[in-house]
Amino acid sequence: MRPFTAFNFAVEIVPDGASAPLVSAAFSDCDGIEMAMDVKTIREGGSNDRQIRLAGPATFGQLTLKRGMSEDSFELWRWMSDSLANPGKRAQATVVLFASDGASERARVVLQRCLPVKLKAPSFSAKDGAVAVEELQIAYESFTLQPGR
Fold first, then answer.
1. What is the pLDDT along the chain (149 residues), one digit of tens a residue?
2. Which positions ≥6 away from 16 have C-beta within 8 Å?
3. Phi-psi category of 13—alpha, beta or left, where left has phi over 0 and alpha has psi -120 to 50?
4. DSSP characters for 48-97?
5. Which residues, 6+ apart, have CB-to-CB distance to 38 below 8 Å?
6. CA 110, CA 95: separation in Å to the nearest integer?
7. Cα–Cα distance between 137 and 27 in angstroms, integer?
C-alpha cells in the first residue's frame, strides 16, 4: 500500500445549528490532530519485578490552521466573536485527506464540539510583499477517523 500524502486536504467548519459550512476552505497548514491516554502506574507490594498500568482518560490536542487572509476570513473572526459572546456555542470540523489526484477521498477526521480558542491576525510588513497569513487554533473534545469513501 502507498502511504498517504499530506499536501492535499480540505477543512470544513460547521457551527451547531447552521445548515451551511462557516468555512470550507483550503488551508495551507493543518496540525494538532492528536489523542493521548494518561496511564496510571501502580506498584503492587512484594512485586518488585513488575508494575501495573491502568488506562486513564484520553486527552486531545488543539487544531492549528493557517491560510492566506481573504474576504472569507471575516467569517472566522465572526465565529470567534460569537463564541466569546456565547461560550457554549460549538461547531464540528472535518479534515478531509485526498489522494494525489485531488478528488479521491483517502480519509476523513471529524472533530466534535469545536471551540475557537485563538485567532491570530497576520503580521504586516511593507518590505516583503508576502501573503498575509492568519492562524486559527481550535480546541476539540474528541475526534473520529473514518476511511475514505
1. 667 777 788 899 998 888 888 876 678 899 999 999 999 999 888 888 899 999 999 999 999 999 888 777 788 888 999 999 998 999 999 999 988 777 788 899 999 999 999 999 888 878 877 888 889 999 999 999 998 77
2. 89, 90, 91, 92
3. beta
4. TT--EEEEEEEEE-EEEEEEE--TTHHHHHHHHHHHHH-TT--EEEEEEE
5. 56, 57, 58, 59
6. 7
7. 12
What is the rounded end-to-end Cα distance, in angstroms, of the chain? 17
Residues belonging to the chain: 149
C-alpha 11, offset from chain centre: 9
d(Cα 116, Cα 128) in Å, to the nearest integer?
29
Residue 111 burial (CB count, 10 A): 24
What whole-number distance in Å separates Cα of residue 107 and Cα of residue 149? 8
* Angstrom distance (rounded) from CA 90 to CA 134: 21
Cell of 15: 457551527
